[in-house]
Amino acid sequence: MVLRKVKRVDRLTLNDLEERFSPDVLDIFKRVYHNNWLDAITSITKPSKRYFLRINSTDVDYVIDKLSKEGLTVRKYPYIDEAVYIDVEYINYDEIPNFNGAVIADRFAAESVIEGANLYMPGVLHMINVKKDDTVAVLDPFGAIIGIGISRIDSSDFNKMSIRKGIAVTITHPFYKIPSIRELESFNNGLIYPQSLPSMVAVKELDPQPGETVIDMCASPGGKLSYIAFLMKMQGHIYGFDRSERKVNILRETLKRLNIKNVHTDVMDSRYLDLKMPKLQADKIIIDPPCSALGVRPKIASDITLKKILDYQQYQIQFLKAASKILKPNGIVVFSVCTITPHEVEEIMLEATNKLPLEPIKQELFIASRSSLNNYNFGKSVQRFQPHIDDTPGFSIIKMKKT
Ligand code: SAH
Predict the structure, then answer these.
(1) How confident is the model at residue 143 (pLDDT cuts 50, 70, 90)?
(2) In contact, 54 and 24? CB cutoff 8 Å
(3) pTM, whole model, 2 decimals?
(4) I need a labelling partner for 136 at 20 to 30 A (CA). Which of 88, 104, 273, 292 fits?
(5) Is 286 close to ligand 1, i.e. is its CB under 6 Å away?
(6) pLDDT tens digit string along 198-237?
(7) How many angstroms does the Cα of residue 242 sit away from the middle of ligand 1?
(8) Best substitution site from 231, 243, 249, 334 to test ligand 1's pocket, by max atoms within 8 Å of Cβ?
(9) Is residue 396 within 6 Å of ligand 1 at its C-beta?
(10) What's the rounded Cα separation, in Å, for the pair 23 and 32?
């Protein structure tokens, strides 16, 4: 196969983006980023250049040292004590070996392969002219190359398989290289937790203090909740809820691995938390609800529609309704979403402050390059991380106080 004829996932054109993203998604990017919308959406198709980890220990230097002994060089992030990051290596395209044949991955598998994960059988859509042990190109469903690897099977065998499991392609040259954190002793000992910078900022904005009553309404897998409990020195009343047994089990595993104790976890539809636990009164609540996830990187395509986004909006506001009833007077609620749509950010704030006893309050650790969008007047009570400028996921945080 001739390399220069294969489309590269890091060189998408306007036509490619129009093929990969629904008209509604393109419209939203244009509305939010105006002349810079192409930069913004292109950056979403690639991972951030910094991969952040949170140090789950008060002795940050000790963990940094331990990581370095395990082969991982991290740098301290100046504005958050527990935040460190690794520089993500981008592929040197000149070093790509020749390959025979191609393996097409589905979108979800492609988004992992692009960062160095192996390609597993269930994520394979097709194999074209592939022999076992050959060097092959892995392509995304739109035909762009996302990595090179060694095929573990022949295409003819793949077609005959009734149960598809195991590794299909061992990736040797991903487009972006992120070290496998989960294999490190420091990870298994609970000294680190991979967490995006804006997620950490959301928790810092909540500013949980030892002794307070703090609730995470959408807690699994527990990234934010474990940070909350850490900052509270595990003292106080700390609650983490999620909607299914499976999710709560995942949450408990995270807390266990990170050695976080004194957290009350339960299966709960938190939209009705005020009815289910009528005596609960909180100083602080964090809501990190399901969202359109348009800021998650790398995202190589999205067919989400405006209708679906409006469904998320309606769903999200229900958590705020319950939160507004549970909060003590002057209590704080932080609402965060890994997306950039005004529908799930400013419009949520508008609805909450118009119809609920909540008012916007200024954020203190203002790291993002953008506050609220111009046609809403929320200023610094809204923090918008812009992927193409801040080198983070597209992520939004809103902060309110109970009146
Ligand atoms: N805060 C988490 C990530 C949350 S993702 C972290 O930092 O690690 C959103 C979560 O909301 C999912 O786990 C989902 O199961 C949960 N969720 C969705 N609807 C819910 C509901 N009605 N009640 C409680 N949790 C819900």
Answers:
(1) very high
(2) no
(3) 0.96
(4) 88
(5) no
(6) 999 999 999 999 999 999 999 999 999 999 999 999 999 9
(7) 5
(8) 243
(9) no
(10) 14
